[in-house]
């Protein structure tokens, strides 16, 4: 039986307001003007928009407040072609809002919001069958089909309880950044964290920012480490989500592990040259433009596979 969609997503959605061009953190008692600003859907929506722009049939289950922020996010995602039939608009509940301040090559987040009333299964509609699913671990258990890719967000308690990893049972992949991976596994290096995570899921991936990414895939017997791409970064907000969505797309396409990591790295690197996560997701248009313009012989060699996969 064929799947209803390529990818089903379930998780926390935020309205993102992003400021860029800051030289430093704002100081008390002063007013700071920025050179750039953008707003739009964030959180799990970063995955959804990226996947849609890569041509995958994408369905999202998320809670939207029945407020101006929620309506804006809903309309934007519908315009991107994302199926929202499993999602719900909740009267009397406010869409969580995140303000991202980008400076010194990183970003600081300030979020306001409350948990949606009820569990995901109680709130959200019947999920479609899918070739792959992406779930937020902190959102709680939800029905999912296909290859399940697990993601998580910042732990505000900073306790990084290893109990979270118990939720990986039945998941195909886990894609934390190096800090999260080391914190949850109580290890001191990304390599040691990857080894621990490789015991829990078939596909373990640890992203290391500008240092690149390392991964191991037990289903194919592959392991790989790919360096990061040097770009002029404006805003890293949502770059990890863009990476994760692109990795899912490449995995469904059946590419070798190293090419999957390079493709995801490239998508994330292109996204940080814009503002916001979903707003700056490059899709095939941005990837094709980069490939047409790149002249570095090493990059032409490493990314030669793009010639065969970029849609005409």
Features:
312 residues; 14 strands; UDP-N-acetylmuramoyl-L-alanine:D-glutamate ligase; four-stranded mixed sheet
Describe the structure.
By secondary structure, the chain is an alpha/beta fold. The chain has a single domain (5-23, 35-309), classed as 3-Layer(aba) Sandwich (UDP-N-acetylmuramoyl-L-alanine:D-glutamate ligase), CATH 3.40.1190.20. Helix content is 29%, strand content 25%. The chain has 10 helices and 14 strands. The strands form 3 sheets. Strands 4-1-9-10-11-12-13-14 form an 8-stranded mixed β-sheet, sandwiched between helices. A hairpin with a 2-residue loop joins strand 7 (97-103) and strand 8 (106-112). Helix 4 (178-185) crosses helix 5 (190-197) and helix 6 (239-252) packs antiparallel against helix 7. It starts with a strand and ends with a helix.
């Amino acid at each position: 039986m064929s799947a209803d969609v390529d990818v089903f997503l379930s998780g926390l959605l935020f309205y993102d307001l992003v400021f860029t061009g800051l030289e430093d953190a704002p100081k008390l008692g002063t007013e700071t003007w920025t050179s750039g600003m953008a707003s739009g859907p964030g959180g799990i929506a970063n995955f959804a928009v990226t996947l849609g722009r890569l041509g995958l049939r994408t369905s999202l289950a998320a809670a939207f407040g029945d407020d101006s922020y929620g309506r804006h996010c809903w309309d934007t995602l519908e315009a991107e072609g994302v199926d929202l039939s499993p999602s719900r608009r909740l009267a009397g509940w406010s869409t969580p809002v995140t303000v991202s301040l980008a400076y010194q090559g990183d970003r600081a987040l300030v979020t306001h919001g409350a948990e949606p009333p009820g569990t995901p299964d109680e709130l959200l509609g019947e999920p479609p069958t899918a070739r792959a699913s992406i779930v937020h671990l902190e959102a709680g258990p939800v029905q999912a089909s296909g290859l399940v890719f697990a993601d998580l967000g910042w732990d505000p308690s900073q306790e990084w309880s290893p109990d979270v990893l118990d939720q990986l049972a039945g998941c195909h992949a886990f894609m934390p950044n190096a800090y999260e991976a080391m914190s949850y596994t109580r290890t001191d290096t990304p390599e040691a964290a990857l080894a621990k995570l490789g015991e829990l899921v078939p596909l373990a991936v640890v992203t290391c920012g500008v240092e690149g990414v390392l991964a191991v895939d037990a289903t194919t017997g592959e392991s790989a480490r790919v360096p990061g791409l040097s770009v002029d970064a404006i805003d890293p907000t949502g770059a990890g989500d863009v990476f994760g969505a692109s990795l899912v797309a490449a995995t469904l396409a059946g590419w070798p592990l190293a090419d999957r990591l390079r493709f995801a790295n490239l998508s994330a690197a292109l996204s940080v040259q814009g503002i916001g996560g979903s707003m700056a997701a490059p899709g095939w248009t941005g990837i094709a433009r980069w490939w047409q313009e790149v002249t570095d012989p090493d990059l032409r060699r490493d990314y030669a596979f793009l010639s065969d996969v970029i849609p005409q």
